[in-house]
């Protein structure tokens, strides 16, 4: 289990990195590498060139304000999780991150990298999607902002072009009347979830005005379902849009069952969270 | 078809306070560079896909899987391996001593990854509860011990560190 | 006075090197040798195929590749199939693979070509350039497919059956027919594997100057590897040294030998004149080492009103994978050890060992016992449920009683000897277990939890384990002139603390300080006669041997000291390495005795001056007496008439989540009887590890093969070995010490015990929580959920609903 040969570039500016990506067929960006390196070692991926962005300046920022949380491409999960400001602005980030793998992986793995890896079994792509966040993407052609709704193309596939680098993710702050919650069932502590569920609600005077649920591991892409009109049976509404599948760890029926168990719980937790915050 | 020799990179690795100048291809995993190029075979390789934790080293003080990093990416970092945990005079570190006291190891293969992880963990949380001790080691696999005595070792290491602190405090007085 | 070491919780001496990162595992060897070459293996991507052509022409062009082998390049014994290590008369259709596949492959992972290159990276590059043309054949995957025999794994093996074996004691079928009550059960266990943290690995160095081959291998039998390497490479045994360095866990898989690489690496080293290394990676370990456990069982049992078993008839099918290098050891152990602590009035067992296109099956810690224990204990629970009796009561009714030892079962065990239990006290063990787990208070706890909407269950399981099988082990004890003691044993060590435990025995037996004893294991240069480390045999076999060898050395020391001190041997005692005349100041240290034991012509230091020919001995006699040898040494072998039988009982309390079907362990209790404990700390560590491995086997681990024979979870990502978060937070252990009468120290083996009852005890507890039968293990939440649906309409569910 050793990677196939590749050329290696370690640019010291973003411009150099973007130029390298534009000039090289089959190049891939190396950030934390916690998902990429195993794929290389198993020779499931064999890029011609790795463009290591770990030497780029100013990409490890974590900035939080009333609008939301901006996370740079080199910010490690562990630092994001440890950021009190980030959790204060958008508590769902920390709730979900504590379920991402194990602390040692979080020390190296990047939140932005995890998002653009676009794994429907991973927590952070779903969280970005649920919160209607965005990813700022740079290439030699310039910068653009991609809404989460347009980011995920398929299993392990984002809509980023091969020469684009995700430089920052933005997670909107939790609105004053908002509440969030997260829960998942995994085979082992730290494993990818069999089913993961997050909820985001808005309330006014303690009453729910909007409710959306995000799901991990029950469809090919991170999936969010609006259950504002189905508060009495949010799981039923969700299952109409999800495609739970069999794998070696769980049957589709069991996954659907977990959706039924977890969805109302998480929704209730999010409503409770909102009411707690508003004192309602 | 004749393949070309692979491009080699001159890499300056700072490990346990020493500098190792190595020439390696870009794909050389940090775990292999430490073991085969630096001769620091204390770091073990158990899965090469980042799950088992045997290869865990400290990169700038933080536990990281050395099988999920390339040596060329480690140039700007200070790396600590199990060999670097022992005191300069050869005394076992509190974590190492605790493993001996509590029978926290059997075959010893996973042990270096536990030792580095716990060393960093106790810096962050010097007085862990039993649950926190368990959480600290939750990303490392061991097939021999059933973890019972590793959890005890974490608590014992914290105790040894407190004892050392108390003793050095007394000496200062 | 020397402190008694036997029985003390002595910290392990091997920890010092492991904790400093100074252990030397096989991949650590020769890392600074610039001549060292590395290797990689092309493995079959198909479960069943004919090989039409192998094209390696692209390989040697790869910069850094040194050589490549396929079967066509092998000659002599290397071109013959690998040995069938343990032949058995009933293994009528045994088959073994070739070191490199000859014309066909029978499992995903079978070795096809062997590449040697400057490093492993380049070797893997080269492997990916080998082109093989295959003709696909339909694979046989799983026991039902093997039994259906629509396709043959090996065309010359009818019905895919490698062996059929039956043993019977009494007329079980007649007894069942006549019994007041009968039950039938079908009980299945899936595939799992040892998965030590370190995979396999071999390094070989051919020394042309001395014409000697040195092989380091991560093995459980260095003497076994040595024999195979010599035979396959056509070398005299005396030209081959095999050294087992530190081993990162074995659990059974490393007792298989020779692995193809254990032969190919030495072959490459001899051919190329350079040292060569093979280090198995994790994916290779999953698809090209060994698995175990997969068996399907059918039970017919007849019993009386008290639950006493009058007749037990068990038929089972054992999936041994594509080949049978290790013979029938696993199913034979299941068929005999299934009986556990019980004495059914009649017993019949028959098994078929069948071929499938999957990885070979060889012993994994427990070695067939977990399956047997599962079958017997599930049967006991079924009898209790049928009669409405407490599960412990039915077991008590069937126990062999303490006054019935030695107890003869009328069967033949895995070593070809009568299955005769040496000692045990099962009623006492059960009493301890009930106390430890709170068996009698459990219904109160259940009610308390039910009031909170929580669902809990309790289970117990009992086992007896034949440990310390022969044929023999040996030890050599040498007291140096410094007074330091060097002990060598032949068997290997992989984490059991042998260097500590055996030093404890030597220290006590000789009367020397523990710190002065150093134990060497698994080095054929030091002890060429040995069998290996498996079947919980190291403590019993090598422990006894090292005790006997130390006694020999002691006898000689006393004889020489008696002469030097002009005292009678009976008046001497040895403590802290000093021989003294009891009640006097007259003494001589063992180092000096060692000097005196070896009459010298040449003095090389102060101590040896004392032993030169002008200083010692009677000028009228030969310096070395007739029948004597120079040096203060002792060598002896221990070869018992039969195995000794350890036993134990486990109980577990689990909680099953009524909604998610997740299974949580609330309490785990172990009562363990392995005779006298050499080092209780080490024994408890073995139990902890076994229990955790058992938790893995019961609730998490399985080999997920698809119909085409691909292993879908060949990684630690998907083969769910427990982390600390999956094992019990505490394991309560109580010991009983019923000594074995078969060896001088009264010891029994402890290595495998912890894992044996796991499947049985968890099935029992989950069944107790849920109210419907659990007949197949392992079980995942997904499967428990499916069972709940299946049983939703049955009265059993109503029962479990009441308990909520």
From TrEMBL, chain A:
SUPFAM superfamilies in the record: CO dehydrogenase flavoprotein C-terminal domain-like (SSF55447), FAD-binding/transporter-associated domain-like (SSF56176)
UniProt-recorded Gene Ontology molecular function terms: anaerobic carbon-monoxide dehydrogenase activity; FAD binding
Keyword Metal-binding: no
Pfam family, one: FAD_binding_5
InterPro entries per record: CO_DH_flav_C, CO_DH_flav_C_dom_sf, Diverse_Substr_Oxidored, FAD-bd_PCMH, FAD-bd_PCMH-like_sf, FAD-bd_PCMH_sub1, FAD-bd_PCMH_sub2, Mopterin_DH_FAD-bd
Domain FAD-binding PCMH-type span(s) in chain numbering: 1-176
UniProt keywords, alphabetically: FAD, Flavoprotein, Oxidoreductase
Keyword Flavoprotein applies: yes
EC number: 1.2.7.4
Protein name in the entry: Carbon-monoxide dehydrogenase medium subunit
Automatic annotation (TrEMBL), chain B:
Pfam family, one: Fer2
GO molecular function: 2 iron, 2 sulfur cluster binding; anaerobic carbon-monoxide dehydrogenase activity; metal ion binding
Highest taxon of source: Bacteria
Keyword Iron-sulfur: yes
Biological or metabolic pathway of the protein: Alkaloid degradation; nicotine degradation
Domain 2Fe-2S ferredoxin-type: 9-85
Keywords of this entry: 2Fe-2S, Iron, Iron-sulfur, Metal-binding, Oxidoreductase
The EC number(s) this enzyme carries: 1.2.7.4
Database matches in PROSITE patterns: 2FE2S_FER_1, 2FE2S_FER_2
Protein name stated in the entry: Carbon-monoxide dehydrogenase small subunit
Organism expressing this protein natively: Nocardioides cavernae
Species classification: Bacteria, Bacillati, Actinomycetota, Actinomycetes, Propionibacteriales
From TrEMBL, chain C:
Catalytic activity, EC: 1.2.7.4
Keyword Oxidoreductase applies: yes
Classification via Pfam families: Ald_Xan_dh_C, MoCoBD_1, MoCoBD_2
GO molecular function term, any single one: anaerobic carbon-monoxide dehydrogenase activity
Keywords, alphabetical: Molybdenum, Oxidoreductase
Enzyme class: oxidoreductase
Source superkingdom: Bacteria
KW Protein transport (keyword) present: no
Domain Aldehyde oxidase/xanthine dehydrogenase a/b hammerhead as annotated: residue spans: 20-138
Protein's recorded name: Carbon-monoxide dehydrogenase large subunit
Species: Nocardioides cavernae
């Amino acid at each position: 289990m050793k990677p196939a040969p590749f050329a290696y570039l370690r640019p010291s500016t973003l411009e150099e990195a973007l130029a390298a990506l534009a000039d090289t067929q089959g190049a891939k960006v190396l950030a934390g590498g916690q998902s990429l390196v195993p794929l290389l070692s198993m020779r499931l991926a064999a890029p011609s060139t790795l463009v290591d962005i770990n030497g780029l300046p100013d990409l490890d920022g974590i900035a939080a304000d009333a609008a939301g949380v901006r996370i740079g491409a080199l910010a490690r999960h562990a630092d994001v999780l440890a950021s009190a400001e980030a959790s204060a602005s958008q508590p769902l980030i920390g709730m979900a991150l504590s379920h991402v793998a194990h602390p040692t992986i979080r020390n190296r793995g990047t939140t932005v990298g995890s998002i653009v890896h676009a794994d429907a079994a991973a927590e952070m792509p779903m969280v970005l999607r649920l919160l209607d966040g965005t990813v700022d993407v740079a290439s030699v052609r310039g910068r653009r902002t991609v809404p989460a709704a347009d980011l995920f193309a398929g299993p392990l596939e984002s809509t980023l072009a091969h020469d684009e680098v995700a430089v920052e993710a933005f997670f909107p702050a939790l609105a004053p009347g908002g509440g969030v919650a997260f829960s998942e069932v995994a085979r082992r502590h730290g494993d990818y979830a069999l089913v993961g569920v997050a909820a985001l609600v808005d309330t006014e005077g303690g009453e729910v005005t909007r409710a959306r649920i995000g799901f991990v591991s029950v469809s090919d892409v991170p999936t969010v379902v609006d259950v504002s009109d189905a508060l009495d049976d949010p799981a039923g509404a969700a299952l109409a849009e999800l495609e739970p599948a069999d794998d070696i760890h769980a049957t589709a029926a069991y996954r659907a069952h977990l959706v039924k168990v977890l969805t109302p719980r998480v929704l209730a937790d999010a409503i409770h969270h909102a009411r707690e915050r508003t004192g309602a | 078809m004749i393949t070309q020799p692979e491009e080699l990179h001159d890499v300056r690795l700072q490990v346990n306070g020493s500098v190792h100048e190595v020439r390696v291809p870009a794909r050389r995993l940090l775990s292999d560079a430490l073991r085969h190029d630096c001769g620091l075979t204390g770091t073990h390789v158990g899965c090469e896909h980042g799950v088992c934790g045997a290869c865990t080293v400290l990169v700038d003080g933080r536990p990281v899987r050395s099988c999920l990093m390339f040596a060329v990416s480690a140039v700007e970092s200070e790396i600590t391996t199990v060999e670097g945990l022992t005191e300069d005079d050869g005394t076992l570190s509190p974590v190492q001593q605790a493993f001996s006291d509590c029978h926290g190891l059997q075959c010893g293969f996973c042990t270096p990854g536990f030792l580095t992880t716990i060393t960093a963990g106790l810096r962050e949380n010097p007085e862990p509860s039993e649950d926190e001790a368990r959480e600290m080691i939750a990303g490392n696999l061991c097939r021999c011990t059933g973890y019972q005595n590793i959890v005890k070792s974490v608590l014992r290491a914290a105790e040894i560190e407190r004892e050392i602190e108390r003793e050095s405090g007394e000496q200062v007085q | 006075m020397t402190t008694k070491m036997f029985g003390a919780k002595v910290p392990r001496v091997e920890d010092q090197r492991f904790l400093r990162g100074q252990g030397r595992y096989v991949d650590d060897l020769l890392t600074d040798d610039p001549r060292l070459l590395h290797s990689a293996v092309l493995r079959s991507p198909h479960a069943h195929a004919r090989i039409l052509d192998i094209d390696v022409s692209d390989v040697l062009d790869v910069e850094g590749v040194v050589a490549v082998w396929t079967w066509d390049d092998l000659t002599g014994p290397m071109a013959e199939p690998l040995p069938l290590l343990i032949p058995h008369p009933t293994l009528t259709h045994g088959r073994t693979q070739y070191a490199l596949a000859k014309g066909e492959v029978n499992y995903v992972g079978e070795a096809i070509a062997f590449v040697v290159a400057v490093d492993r990276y380049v070797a893997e590059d080269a492997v990916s350039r080998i082109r093989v043309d295959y003709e696909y054949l339909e694979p046989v995957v799983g026991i039902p497919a093997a039994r259906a025999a629509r396709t043959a794994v090996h065309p010359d093996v009818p019905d895919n059956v490698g062996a059929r074996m039956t043993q019977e004691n009494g007329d079980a079928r007649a007894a069942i027919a006549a019994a007041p009550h009968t039950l039938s059960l079908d009980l299945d266990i899936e595939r799992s594997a040892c998965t030590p943290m370190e995979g396999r690995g071999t390094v070989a160095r051919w020394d042309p100057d001395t014409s000697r081959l040195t092989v380091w291998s991560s093995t459980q039998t260095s003497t076994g590897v040595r024999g195979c390497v010599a035979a396959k490479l056509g070398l005299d045994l005396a030209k081959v040294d095999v050294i087992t360095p530190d081993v990162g866990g074995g659990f059974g898989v490393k007792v298989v030998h020779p692995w193809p690489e254990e032969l190919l690496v030495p072959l490459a080293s001899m051919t190329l004149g350079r040292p060569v290394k093979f280090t198995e990676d994790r994916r290779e370990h999953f698809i090209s080492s060994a698995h175990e456990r997969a068996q399907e069982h059918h039970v017919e049992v007849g019993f009386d009103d008290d639950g006493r078993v009058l007749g037990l008839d068990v038929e089972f099918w054992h999936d041994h994978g594509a080949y049978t290098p290790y013979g029938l050891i696993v199913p034979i152990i299941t068929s005999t050890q299934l009986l556990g602590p019980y004495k059914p009035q009649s017993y019949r067992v028959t098994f078929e060992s069948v071929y499938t296109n999957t990885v070979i099956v060889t012993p994994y810690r427990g070695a067939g016992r977990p399956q047997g224990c599962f079958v017997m204990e599930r049967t006991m629970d079924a009898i209790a449920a049928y009669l409405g009796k407490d599960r412990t009561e039915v077991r008590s009714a069937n126990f062999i009683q303490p006054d019935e030892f030695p107890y003869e079962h009328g069967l033949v065990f895995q070593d070809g000897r009568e299955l005769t239990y040496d000692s045990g006290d099962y009623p006492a063990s059960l009493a301890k277990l009930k106390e430890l787990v709170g068996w009698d208070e459990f219904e109160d706890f259940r009610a308390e939890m039910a009031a909170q909407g929580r669902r809990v269950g309790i289970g117990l399981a009992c086992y007896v384990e034949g440990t310390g099988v022969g044929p023999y082990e040996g030890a050599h004890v040498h007291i140096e002139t410094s007074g330091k003691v060097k002990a060598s044993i032949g068997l290997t060590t992989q984490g059991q603390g042998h260097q500590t435990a055996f030093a404890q025995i030597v220290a006590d037996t000789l009367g020397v300080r523990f710190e002065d004893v150093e134990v060497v294991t698994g080095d054929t240069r030091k002890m060429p006669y040995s069998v290996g480390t498996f079947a919980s045999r190291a403590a019993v076999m090598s422990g006894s041997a090292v005790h006997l060898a130390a006694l020999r050395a002691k006898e000689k020391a006393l004889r020489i000291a008696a002469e030097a001190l002009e005292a009678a041997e009976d008046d001497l005692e040895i403590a802290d390495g000093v021989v003294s005349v009891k009640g006097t100041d007259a003494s001589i240290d063992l180092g000096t005795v060692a000097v005196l034991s070896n009459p010298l012509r040449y003095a090389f230091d102060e101590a040896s001056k004392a032993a030169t020919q002008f200083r010692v001995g009677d000028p009228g006699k030969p310096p070395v007496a007739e029948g004597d040898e120079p040096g203060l040494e002792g060598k002896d072998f221990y070869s018992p008439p039969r195995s000794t039988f350890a036993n134990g009982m486990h109980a577990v309390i689990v909680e099953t989540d009524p909604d998610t079907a997740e299974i949580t362990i609330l309490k785990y209790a172990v009562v363990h009887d392995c005779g006298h404990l050499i080092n209780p700390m080490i024994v408890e560590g073995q139990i902890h590890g076994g229990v955790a491995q058992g938790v893995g086997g019961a609730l998490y681990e399985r080999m997920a093969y698809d119909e085409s024979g691909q292993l879908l979870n060949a990684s630690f990502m998907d083969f769910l070995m427990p982390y600390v978060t999956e094992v019990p937070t505490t394991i309560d252990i109580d010991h009983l010490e019923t000594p074995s009468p078969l060896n001088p120290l009264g010891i029994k083996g402890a290595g495998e015990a912890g894992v044996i009852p796991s499947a049985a005890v968890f099935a029992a507890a989950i069944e107790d929580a849920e109210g419907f039968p659990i007949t197949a293990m392992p079980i995942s939440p997904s499967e428990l959920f499916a069972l709940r649906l299946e049983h939703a309409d049955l009265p059993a569910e109503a029962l479990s609903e009441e308990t909520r």
